[in-house]
């Protein structure tokens, strides 16, 4: 687990992306700088209550968030933060997560 | 594609739908294929093009003893079969083949030969979404659905009208898996799968298959009206998954589609809109220009709820079922053909002459990345 979520910024037009593309969709630049985004505002929240093929599923919260650096992304939400809340972002493996800002 | 040069001349589904534990996936494809051939009076030896998703077109050709000069294995989710029609039209016009069999079948409910549920760990979703829970469209599409409801003021009751009225159509389709009436109260009381999607927002998975035959219009059986492709457009990865999911790729080509067809949204008699979820019916209908003023709620309550504008007249995937995976895109085309040939039985839309069909799918990361639409017309 680490603070913030990695995004990739086109070295040419500076647009940020998650996940990393091979080429920038805006300018087709092929070089990206690694950046990190630490905060986001929650826009929508869903709770996954059932999962096909899973018998002992524990409901999980996911959220669509607008990051402070621009890109929208979907994250796993680790607490009861609601729409409009500012959350801090973190990674587990390759996946983005969020929780209430401390 | 060249307008009006290609027709769908035959359409059929498997002899049975629902649970079919005694048939393999390729067997389902073949059963629907033979039924479609019989439907238009053709023999397997007449087929020189095969297109399918969920199975290899070459496997299917081998199984049916066909040696085609054209094969298409385009596999982009629920949009695959709309694209097979598009590609078949181009191939026929280019002289690559003359008569194309398009099939899709899966043992979605019986799960004959099926693997485990869940996507590949190396996919975009597998790397960046599955670790925190989502797996498959019923969990990933929740976000754009919520956004739709918020942006357009669509309520659960509005969305219910899509499912409730499609169930009415399904009652007239002997092959639909759900035929009993669905009330508003039942819809609203259904258990949530992933907020805000409840049981009746999600398609029932069935075993079965569909097949159509695409050829020049003169291959249609004598005495039966042909169904010509008047216009066809497609879009792939239109916003690079950067948007908010409120629009589909249809928004990029709708104006060109209508212009190519030479008709307007008001002219449409029957619509087959890919209905993996009620909200996606609205998203595509809105992008097509079928919803004046982007008033999605009114479209649900009045256009569908009161006026019973014919959308997904076989019951849609929401009531007739989806054979899993790539699924339903072929059902809508097949139904539009039956409607335009005036062969839809109890659910026939009177004097139907023009239909719009859509496909939407290929859930990449966040939402679907492929969309297509066609205008089909009855030709006497």
Description of the molecule:
The complex is a heterodimer of chains A (102) and B (380). Chain A has 102 residues and is an all-beta fold. Chain A has one domain (5-100): OB fold (Dihydrolipoamide Acetyltransferase, E2P) (Beta Barrel), CATH 2.40.50.840. Chain A has no helices and nine strands. With 380 residues, chain B is α/β, with parallel strands linked by helices. Chain B has two domains: 3-115 and 209-218, Peroxisomal Thiolase, Chain A, domain 1, CATH 3.40.47; 124-202 and 230-378, 3-Layer(aba) Sandwich (Peroxisomal Thiolase, Chain A, domain 1), CATH 3.40.47. In chain B, strand 10 (354-365) and strand 11 (367-379) form a beta hairpin. The model of chain B has no long low-confidence stretch (mean pLDDT 91). Classes of the chains: A mainly beta (102), B alpha/beta (380). Chain A binds chain B through residues 17-19, 21, 25, 43-54, 60, 62, 64, 71-72, 74-76, 92-97, and chain B through 116-118, 124, 127-136, 138-140, 142-143, 146-147, 150, 191-196, 240, 242, 244, 365-366.
Order of strands side by side in the largest beta sheet of chain A?
5-6-7-9-8
H/E order of the elements of chain B?
Answer: EHEHEHEHHHHHEEEEHEHHHHEE
CATH superfamily of the largest domain in chain B: Thiolase/Chalcone synthase
Helix/strand class of chain A: mainly beta
β content of chain A, as a range? Answer: over 45%
- Beta-strand residue fraction of chain B: 15-25%
Helix content of chain A: under 10%
Which fold name corresponds to the CATH topology of chain A?
Answer: OB fold (Dihydrolipoamide Acetyltransferase, E2P)
Taken together, the total number of domains of chain A comes to 1
Question: At CATH's second level, what is the architecture of chain A?
Answer: Beta Barrel
Unreliable segments of 5+ consecutive residues of chain B:
none
| CATH topology group of the largest domain in chain B | Peroxisomal Thiolase, Chain A, domain 1
Distance between the termini of chain A: 16 Å
- What about the largest sheet of chain B? 9 strands, mixed
Q: Which regions of chain A have little confidence, pLDDT < 50, spanning 5+ residues?
A: none
Distance between the termini of chain B: 22 Å
Biggest beta sheet attributes of chain A = 5 strands, mixed, barrel
Return the average pLDDT of chain B rounded to an integer.
91
The portion of residues assigned to helices of chain B is: 25-40%
Strand order of the largest sheet of chain B: 3-2-4-7-1-8-11-10-9
Shape of chain B: globular
